[in-house]
Amino acid sequence: MSWIRRKLWVLAVSVLAGASGCNPFTLGLLTPVPVQPWTAERMEQKLNHKNDGRVPIMPPLRAGFPDPICEDAPSDQEVLRAMPRVPRGVPYFYETFRDDIVIVKNRLVDKIDPPRFFPLVGQAQLHHCHWECVIYYTELVQSDYPFPVYVKKQRVQVIYIDKDHLHLYVGPDAETQRQITQDLTRY
User: Fold this and answer.
1) Who is most buried in 4, 19, 25, 94, counting CB within 10 A?
2) How many CA atoms does the CB half-sphere of 10 hold within 13 Å?
């Protein structure tokens, strides 16, 4: 008889413990899962800026027209994403900030290679556009515990960004070049 009483007692305690919230698995699919706070930031960067490393395919270079030049400098957002990340600190114990950011962009290389075969593209010419981006900023290192400390330093960071792209090559015939350009650009 004590055997049955003991089994009923264990069953009652387990039901009460599960109903009172002591068991973390009683929520089923709604069980909270700990996620680091920077996970959402990393996922956003991966999904929102996926074209940063891709090479665009442009219409062919037309005979009789001047070759295009690299006019599209990297945007400030691209340059800041290419910089090394700020070290992740602990609030009020150690934090690092970047203030007063100034970006200077210089074109280093602007040349077009002769046509060659590229897999998945075909005959194309590679247009090299290399940029040097110099970033001037003030780095602030802050700590509030055990006593407040603020250290400001002027910093300079140099980032090199390649904005290479391909121009299709359809041959020396001007009419074919015009037709392909019209098909690709809709004008």
Assistant:
1) 94
2) 6
Length of the chain: 187
Please identify which residue in the block is written with the tokens 């077009």.
Answer: 112
Question: Which residue range(s) make up the domain with 66?
Answer: 58-185
Round to whole Å and give the CA distance between 100 and 54.
30
143 found inside a domain: yes
CB 81 within 8 A of CB 126: no
Between the two ends of the chain, the Cα-to-Cα distance in Å is 93
